[in-house]
Amino acid sequence: LEEAAFQLQQIFRIDISIALNILGTESMRAGHCRVAFTCFKLAADRGYSKAQFNVGLCYEHGRGTEKDLEKAGFYYCQAASSRHPMAQYRYARYLLQHGPGSPWDRQHKAVALLEQAAGAGITEAQAYLGVFYMRGLQPQEKRGLKYLLQAANSGDAQSRFHVGVCYEQGLGVQRDLAEALRHYRQSAAMGNRQARDRLRA
């Protein structure tokens, strides 16, 4: 009976958190940011990762509450530890820009989180890693190109442009101007101005 009661409590706790998060989402859509934040916070403090991510967004952008990057980082970290892919990406960005500790430790942890988010299909993480590996202190061009291609294949016009640059300059791949042009054209067709400028050049 004790086990059954515990299971019921867990289900009830999760259901309440899901309901609060949905209510928060609907309130945000309706422009009731303070109500949304309150709902997200109640669900987040019950350990619901989607709500923790939403609280992080609220703190990062000052929606329904005061803007507070440290608190945003805290909630992103909580959601990321539950393997929420977009929270992993956001927390990695927070670590690289504002996080505590030594730059090397922050970068090491951030890259691990970005790799997980990219593996889960988060286009922003793939694009970020692509550029990171291309421009890092010790560039890993093949690895960077792999992530840029993933992001480009998910529809990211900027990453498609960067893939064109890789083919034009032979970064991580055999130099191939025809292939570079193909990527520039695709990126330009998606509205990327840099690609249009490159095609004119």
UniProtKB/TrEMBL annotation:
SUPFAM superfamilies membership = HCP-like
Q: A single GO BP annotation from the record?
A: extrinsic apoptotic signaling pathway via death domain receptors
Alphabetical GO CC annotations of the entry are: mitochondrion
Organism domain of life: Eukaryota
InterPro entries recorded: ISR_Activator, Sel1-like, TPR-like_helical_dom_sf
Q: Spell out the Pfam families in the cross-references.
A: Sel1
Q: What is this protein called?
A: DELE protein
Report the source organism. Answer: Emberiza fucata
